[in-house]
Design goal:
The protein is α/β, with parallel strands linked by helices. The chain has 9 helices and 5 strands, in the order E-H-E-H-H-E-H-H-E-H-H-H-E-H. A 5-stranded parallel sheet has the order 2-3-1-4-5, with helices on both faces. It has one domain: 3-Layer(aba) Sandwich (Rossmann fold). The structure holds thymidine-5'-diphosphate. Thymidine-5'-diphosphate binds next to helix 4.
Length: 208
């Protein structure tokens, strides 16, 4: 089995965390050893990731502090690549990563940062082999967020009109990255159906 860097993207409440864990369980059930699977996420629990989480929970208006958000997400990503992603890729592991650069190109562009500025900062960053974008209307996502008992407060980006823009932003990813392997999945269906679709795509690529 070869290594693979897979990214899951989507608006808050798109179900990506659950779907990612289902993908992990699916691969384990298919006989892939746990030591060859890396589950990871951005923002990371590292220095910059912690700072970004602080800002997410205290900030109120998504249009302010845009540069600060950009700098923190990019610094966190660089650290993630260095410490987690590159070593895993080099040793042929399968990486399932919750969010990556597509989130910055989407959220921080909506915060008002020009795409050229974001592009420059991502120039030499590793490109995933496969990206799933879980597409869901903001209404459905917000219902999922408010019925999740583990989340008691809404973060700065979890507001309806902001999320609707984020959804549209993510749908542009294929145009922004025409040479990348990006699959858009309708995530308004049941989590089981979405997982089955995603696991099918994953397995087809891994078996090749
Ligand atoms: P995430 O951990 O996926 O959200 P949660 O655990 O609260 O469901 O991401 C936190 C927030 O950070 C989310 O609103 C999306 C945002 N984000 C960006 O704006 N830019 C980025 O580059 C990344 C990775 C996340």
């Amino acid at each position: 089995m070869k290594g693979l860097f897979v990214v899951f993207e989507g608006i808050d409440g798109s179900g990506k965390g659950t779907i990612l864990r289902h993908a992990y369980d699916f691969l384990v059930a298919k006989g892939i050893k746990k030591e060859n699977l890396i589950l990871t996420a951005e923002p990371t629990p590292g220095f910059y990731g912690k700072k970004v989480r602080e800002l997410l929970s205290t900030d109120v208006d998504p249009k302010v502090n845009a540069m600060q958000f950009l700098d923190l997400y990019v610094a966190d990503r660089k650290e993630h690549i260095e410490k987690v992603l590159k070593p895993a890729i080099d040793s042929g592991k399968i990486i399932l990563c919750d969010r990556y650069k597509y989130s910055t190109f989407t959220y921080q562009q909506i915060q008002g940062i020009p795409i050229e500025k974001i592009s420059v900062l991502h120039k030499s960053m590793v490109v995933p082999n496969l990206v799933f974008i879980l597409d869901v209307p903001a209404d459905v996502a917000l219902k999922r967020i408010s019925s999740d008992s583990k989340r008691n407060t809404k973060e700065v980006f979890e507001k309806k009109d902001f999320l609707e823009n984020v959804r549209e932003g993510f749908l542009k990813s294929k145009k922004i990255f025409p040479n990348e392997n990006i699959v858009i999945v309708d995530s308004s269906k049941s989590i089981e159906k979405v997982s089955a679709e995603i696991n099918g795509v994953l397995w087809k690529i891994l078996k090749k």
